[in-house]
Design a protein that fits this description.
The protein is mainly alpha-helical and about 425 residues long. About 80% of the residues lie in helices and about 0% in strands. The protein is built from 16 helices and no strands. α2 packs antiparallel against α13, α5 runs antiparallel to α7 and α8 runs antiparallel to α9. The radius of gyration is 21 Å and the shape is globular.
C-alpha cells in the first residue's frame, strides 16, 4: 500500500476528525492549565498535580477493563443488537466496580497523599473522575464499535470545551478545588447529548453471550497493563516528592515541563484509536499488520519527528506562558521530548497493536518489566540530578519500553501462519 492510499483509508475512517478532536482537546486543556497556573500558587498547583497523579494511576481500574473488553469483542458481535447488549452488560458492571473504587479512594486519601498532605482535598474531588471518565469512554467506544469515529471525536471536542469553560468559572470562584471539580465534571457534560443520540440512555443489567469467551480475562489483563502504563508515567513524580526538596514546587515545575511533550502523544494515540477496530479485524493477517506499521512510520513518524524538533527549540518560550518561573524547566522539557519520540515511533503504535490483536497479557508482562526498570532508573538519576534526572530516566525508559513492544509484536507476527 502506498503512502497516499494509507492516508486516504485513514481519512475514510474519519481519522482527521479523531486527530483534530484530540489536538483541540490538548490545546484547550493547555489553555485551562495556563489559566490555573496564573491564578493559583505553585504550591497549590503542585498539590493538585500530585493528587491527579495518584488518581490517574488508579483510573485503569475503573470498571475492571470492561470498556476495553467491550471495544475489543464488539468486532466479534454479529449484528447491532448483540453489540448493544454487550455494551449494556459491560457498562453496568463497569459502573458498579467504579463506585467501589471511588469509596476506597475517599477512605485511603490521607495515606495515599502522605508525602504531600495538601493533596488530600483535591484527590477526593478527583476520585469521581473514575466514574465520569468511564462513562465517557464507554460512549466513545460504542461510537467507534459501530464505525462512527466522527461521533467519538465530537465527544472529545465537547469534553475539551466543557473543561475549559468549567475550569475558568470554578477556579475563579474556588481556586484549585474548583479546578479539580471542573476536571471531574467535564466528562459528564461532554456525553449528555451524544449518549442520547446513540440511544444509550438507561442502565441495564444484561447478560454476557457465551460467544464472547475471554471477555473478563482480556479486561483484567488490559486493566493491569493500563495501570502499569499509568504508573510508568507517574513514578517520576512520586519519586521527585521523595528525593527533591521543596516538594510541591518541584512537582509543579516538573509537571508543567512535561505537559507539552506528553500532549504530543495525541498524534499516535489518535491514529491508534482510529485504526483499532480495523487492526483487530486483521489480527490473523500478518501482511496487513506489517504493512500498517510501515505505512504509519512513513507518514506519521516523520510528522512526529518534525513537531518534536520544533518544540525542542521553542521550549523556553512555551514554558514562559505558564509564568516566568516555569522557564527554568526548559531542560526537563527538552530531555523529555527526546524520550517521547520513542513513544511516538515504538511504544504507542506497537502497544496498541498488541492490544488490538488480543495480546493484552503481553502488554502487561512488558509493563511489569518496564515499571521495575523505571523505578531503578529514577532511584539512580533523581538523587543525583533532581528533576532533570527524572526526565533522563523517563526518556531512556520510553525507548526501552518501545523496543520491547516492537520485539513482542514481531514474536506475534512470526507465530501467525
Amino acid at each position: 500500500m502506498s503512502t497516499r492510499e494509507f492516508l486516504l483509508e485513514f481519512l475514510r475512517r474519519q481519522g482527521l476528525w479523531m486527530i483534530s478532536a484530540n489536538t483541540l482537546s490538548k490545546v484547550l486543556g493547555f489553555a485551562a492549565v495556563v489559566y490555573v497556573t496564573r491564578n493559583t500558587t505553585e504550591e497549590a498547583f503542585g498539590a493538585y498535580s500530585y493528587a491527579l497523579n495518584i488518581i490517574l494511576a488508579l483510573v485503569p481500574f475503573m470498571g475492571l477493563g470492561t470498556y476495553q473488553s467491550f471495544l475489543r469483542y464488539s468486532t466479534d458481535a454479529p449484528g447491532q443488537s448483540k453489540k448493544k447488549n454487550l455494551f449494556y452488560y459491560s457498562h453496568a458492571r463497569g459502573i458498579f466496580f467504579s463506585l467501589i473504587l471511588i469509596s476506597l479512594l475517599w477512605v485511603l486519601a490521607p495515606i495515599l497523599c502522605k508525602s504531600i498532605p495538601e493533596s488530600v482535598g483535591p484527590s477526593r474531588i478527583l476520585a469521581f473522575l473514575v466514574l465520569t471518565t468511564l462513562n465517557m469512554e464507554f460512549v466513545k467506544s460504542y461510537a467507534r464499535a459501530i464505525h462512527k469515529n466522527g461521533i467519538s471525536a465530537k465527544i472529545e471536542i465537547s469534553y475539551a470545551i466543557s473543561l475549559l469553560v468549567l475550569a475558568i468559572a470554578l477556579t475563579s470562584m474556588y481556586g484549585i478545588y474548583g479546578y479539580a471539580a471542573a476536571v471531574a465534571i467535564a466528562p459528564v457534560v461532554a456525553v449528555l447529548f451524544y449518549g442520547w443520540k446513540l440511544n444509550l440512555a438507561g442502565y441495564k443489567w444484561a447478560t454476557l453471550d457465551s460467544t464472547f469467551i475471554g471477555f473478563w480475562k482480556y479486561g483484567i489483563f488490559t486493566t493491569i497493563g493500563a495501570l502499569l502504563a499509568h504508573l510508568f508515567y507517574a513514578v517520576d513524580l512520586f519519586m521527585i516528592a521523595q528525593f527533591v526538596g521543596e516538594k510541591a514546587t518541584s512537582v509543579a515545575m516538573y509537571r508543567v515541563a512535561i505537559i507539552i511533550p506528553i500532549a504530543t502523544l495525541v498524534i499516535p494515540i489518535s491514529i491508534s484509536a482510529t485504526d483499532y477496530v480495523k487492526n483487530s479485524a486483521n489480527k490473523n493477517k500478518p501482511n496487513e499488520l506489517r504493512s500498517y506499521i510501515f505505512n504509519y512510520w512513513k507518514t506519521f513518524g516523520f510528522l512526529s519527528f518534525i513537531s518534536l524538533a520544533i518544540l525542542w527549540f521553542i521550549s523556553p518560550w512555551i514554558l514562559g506562558v505558564f509564568g516566568s518561573s516555569y522557564q527554568n524547566g526548559a531542560g526537563v522539557m527538552r530531555i523529555f521530548l527526546v524520550g517521547i519520540l520513542g513513544a511516538h515511533l515504538l511504544r504507542v503504535p506497537f502497544g496498541n497493536l498488541l492490544s488490538a490483536v488480543g495480546k493484552a497479557d503481553w502488554n502487561t508482562y512488558i509493563n511489569v518489566i518496564v515499571l521495575l526498570l523505571t523505578v531503578l532508573a529514577c532511584w539512580y538519576f533523581i538523587p543525583l540530578y533532581g528533576i532533570n534526572g527524572a526526565a533522563t530516566a523517563m526518556a531512556i525508559m520510553m525507548w526501552v519500553s518501545g523496543g520491547l513492544n516492537a520485539l513482542f509484536f514481531q514474536f506475534y507476527i512470526n507465530g501467525l501462519k
